[in-house]
Amino acid sequence: MLAVRSARVKGAAAARISRRIVCYGNQISIRRFESRTFPARIHSASCPFPRFHSTSSSTSSTTTMADAKLAQALSGLSISPATIAHEPTTSPAQWKEVIAAHADAPKDFELIKTLVYKPKTAKSATPIPVVVIAREATETNSGAIGKQLNLKELRLAAGELLQEFFGLDKDSLSPFAIDKDGFSKIVTVIDPSIADSTSTFALHASSSSSTIFVSGKDIVSHLKSLESEETKLQELAAAGAAAPAAPAPKAAPKEKEDAKIDGAVQIAIGVKKEVDFASWYTNVLIKADMLDYYSVSGCYILKPWSYSIWEEIQTWFNKEIKKLGVQNSYFPMFISQSVLEREKEHIEGFSPEVAWVTRAGQSDLEEPIAIRPTSETSMYPYYAKWIRSHRDLPLKLNQWNSVVRWEFKNPQPFLRTREFLWQEGHTAFLTKEEADVEVRQILDLYRKVYEDLLAVPVIPGVKSEKEKFAGGLYTTTLEGFISTSGRGIQAATSHCLGQNFSRPEMFNIFVEDPQDHSKSYVWQNSWGLSTRAIGVMVMVHGDNQGLVLPPRVASIQAVVVPCGITAKTTEEQRTKINEECEALAQKLRDADIRAKADLREGYTPGYKFNDWEQKGVPLRLEIGPQDMKKNQTLAVRRDNGSKTPLPLGGIESTITELLKTIQNDMFTTARDNYWSHVKTITQWEDVVPALDSKNIIAIPWCEAEKCEDDIKDRSGRAAEPQDERAPSAGAKSLCIPFDQSHWPAIEAGKTKCVGCGSDAKRWTLFGRSY
Ligand SMILES: [Zn+2]
């Protein structure tokens, strides 16, 4: 629950804030002066903060200790760096802002982040914290770091551990808080690019309210000076420090050279999908103008080209759920701590990702307020209030909103973002039977969103106990597949919550039997579909020319481009071609086809072709002088590149049909591709090779949780990492498909589980996943 929780501002620290006293030593460029007495030189009597000498009369012993370590570190380096005092900061963004606004700070600087992780250790054992020192822009991936160090389940360390080892909170830590004694008790890992960088780095001096500016060399020298025979400074491997996601690969590493497309023109995607999938994906999103990066890490701007897809989904889905009697409503985004934590199992599933508001202006809130990670707990107290009798059931509400899950894994646009858009439906019924029926009705609507609108195939099924929604009874799911990475992806889920939330000790939602006054606790469902769907669509259909949009969700379905205009073309001819193009577009619009004529001056047809291909417009219609003579247009499909001349007579119905064909073809191609990667496996030896060949597997499975853990463990260890940004993980269960008819019937007592050899229950999909 750390996320955006801010540190409490102590009185003394707060008093210091406004004074902004600047303590300056020599400039950082003049480092090598021979003096061990600099603390005295940089601290005149009128400069109360910070004091680097151990005899400081500082208010708390904590500060004294941290100051002493800092003083020792700096004297060891014989430097007296520029130091500024400022208000305490509780986030990198705020820290950066405060420094940038400071008159005495260097113009250009980079933040250094000092992260402390705790590996999973037995309760009795003393933990050995892992301290990761990295540049601000370096994405640190705890999974990969754990893998590199051979440590299990690294988690950001709690405040108590930081106090125990460093005597500081997370907002005050820096490499200078580590001394020789401390160094021997921890594992220290440094981002190797710090040493070679010419940047000036900002580090907290000894608290979150002071900053010093040093070079990368100084940081490394300090840490090296702490090394002993037993304990050495470690370097962060590439997998643990994936380059920050950037709009374009500015400096692609050499081994990625072959990913570049030969002769790629300025506006092409520039990277091959099958070679560097991660860069390809972000390039497509940027070049198709779907998305832009945002100043808060893990958050993205959805531009009209992608938001319009979401609107199509909304329009269709709203219509369908209203047929089922669902009504839209809106609940606040804030949830009080006590309400959020009422359902223990539920909150345990979400707690590491919950962001908290702890302060308003300068005052701390009495009780922190959570930003909803999902709305069960915000809505159900009111369900208890509103549901009084049988007549109030079923209650079916939906809301279109955003939720926040403060992920620490590598963010990926649409797939894993800290804030995302979705709809969440919450319904209550008198009986389990009614709830069961609705769970499947909704899942089928989700299937239609994917298959009919986005042309993305999915496999419907039920989640294992381990993978089901926290606090729910059972979870049904649609599982998608990204064949380029060979990974499964959860596409949408529809949960039956059972009576877990309606029980008297939870939200106490019941109706009374009019005859015997017995209480019936309601049966509840919740279901959600998010903008992740857009990312899955991009990954499934996109190619090396860019985005490929299925016609049903394309905000422009057909673009009309004037062609054959040369230097010899007269003004009159040119006007005539343009008019013909506009007339065609208008005719199509009148027939409810989303069409546009691209009459931009100063762009060649070739440029326009590329531009619209990159943006994925399903159909291009060319009109040139020859076409006009023949009263036809040349239709070029985005999905397969095929070209067909079409007569202009009756063009509306021809295009309507053609768009349907494209939609169907895109789905069929993707479905065949998906199923060609679902491998039926009946012995363990075949599991890892199948996964390594970018497949998911269908196995007879016992459905035991321990077996699932074991499969994940064994398939993770055996595998080689495939992509620096997607280190290979173990396979987890994706779903138990409802339709088991793809595979031979399971024979009770005869068919054995591929994982553990005990009796298998059902065929289950396992795979590496997003
Ligand atoms: Zn098993």
From TrEMBL:
<dbReference type="InterPro" id="IPR016061">
    <property type="entry name" value="Pro-tRNA_ligase_II_C"/>
</dbReference>
<dbReference type="InterPro" id="IPR002316">
    <property type="entry name" value="Pro-tRNA-ligase_IIa"/>
</dbReference>
<dbReference type="InterPro" id="IPR002314">
    <property type="entry name" value="aa-tRNA-synt_IIb"/>
</dbReference>
<dbReference type="GO" id="GO:0017101">
    <property type="term" value="C:aminoacyl-tRNA synthetase multienzyme complex"/>
</dbReference>
<dbReference type="GO" id="GO:0006433">
    <property type="term" value="P:prolyl-tRNA aminoacylation"/>
</dbReference>
<keyword id="KW-0067">ATP-binding</keyword>
<dbReference type="InterPro" id="IPR006195">
    <property type="entry name" value="aa-tRNA-synth_II"/>
</dbReference>
<keyword id="KW-0436">Ligase</keyword>
<dbReference type="Pfam" id="PF04073">
    <property type="entry name" value="tRNA_edit"/>
</dbReference>
<protein>
    <recommendedName>
        <fullName>proline--tRNA ligase</fullName>
        <ecNumber>6.1.1.15</ecNumber>
    </recommendedName>
</protein>
<dbReference type="InterPro" id="IPR017449">
    <property type="entry name" value="Pro-tRNA_synth_II"/>
</dbReference>
<keyword id="KW-0175">Coiled coil</keyword>
<feature type="domain" description="Aminoacyl-transfer RNA synthetases class-II family profile">
    <location>
        <begin position="307"/>
        <end position="550"/>
    </location>
</feature>
<dbReference type="Pfam" id="PF09180">
    <property type="entry name" value="ProRS-C_1"/>
</dbReference>
<dbReference type="GO" id="GO:0005737">
    <property type="term" value="C:cytoplasm"/>
</dbReference>
<dbReference type="GO" id="GO:0002161">
    <property type="term" value="F:aminoacyl-tRNA deacylase activity"/>
</dbReference>
<dbReference type="GO" id="GO:0004827">
    <property type="term" value="F:proline-tRNA ligase activity"/>
</dbReference>
<keyword id="KW-0030">Aminoacyl-tRNA synthetase</keyword>
<keyword id="KW-0547">Nucleotide-binding</keyword>
<dbReference type="Pfam" id="PF00587">
    <property type="entry name" value="tRNA-synt_2b"/>
</dbReference>
<dbReference type="InterPro" id="IPR007214">
    <property type="entry name" value="YbaK/aa-tRNA-synth-assoc-dom"/>
</dbReference>
<keyword id="KW-0648">Protein biosynthesis</keyword>
<dbReference type="Pfam" id="PF03129">
    <property type="entry name" value="HGTP_anticodon"/>
</dbReference>
<dbReference type="InterPro" id="IPR033721">
    <property type="entry name" value="ProRS_core_arch_euk"/>
</dbReference>
<dbReference type="InterPro" id="IPR004154">
    <property type="entry name" value="Anticodon-bd"/>
</dbReference>
<dbReference type="InterPro" id="IPR036621">
    <property type="entry name" value="Anticodon-bd_dom_sf"/>
</dbReference>
<dbReference type="GO" id="GO:0005524">
    <property type="term" value="F:ATP binding"/>
</dbReference>
<feature type="coiled-coil region">
    <location>
        <begin position="567"/>
        <end position="594"/>
    </location>
</feature>
<dbReference type="InterPro" id="IPR004499">
    <property type="entry name" value="Pro-tRNA-ligase_IIa_arc-type"/>
</dbReference>
<feature type="compositionally biased region" description="Basic and acidic residues">
    <location>
        <begin position="712"/>
        <end position="726"/>
    </location>
</feature>
<dbReference type="InterPro" id="IPR045864">
    <property type="entry name" value="aa-tRNA-synth_II/BPL/LPL"/>
</dbReference>
<dbReference type="InterPro" id="IPR036754">
    <property type="entry name" value="YbaK/aa-tRNA-synt-asso_dom_sf"/>
</dbReference>
<feature type="region of interest" description="Disordered">
    <location>
        <begin position="712"/>
        <end position="731"/>
    </location>
</feature>
<comment type="similarity">
    <text>Belongs to the class-II aminoacyl-tRNA synthetase family.</text>
</comment>
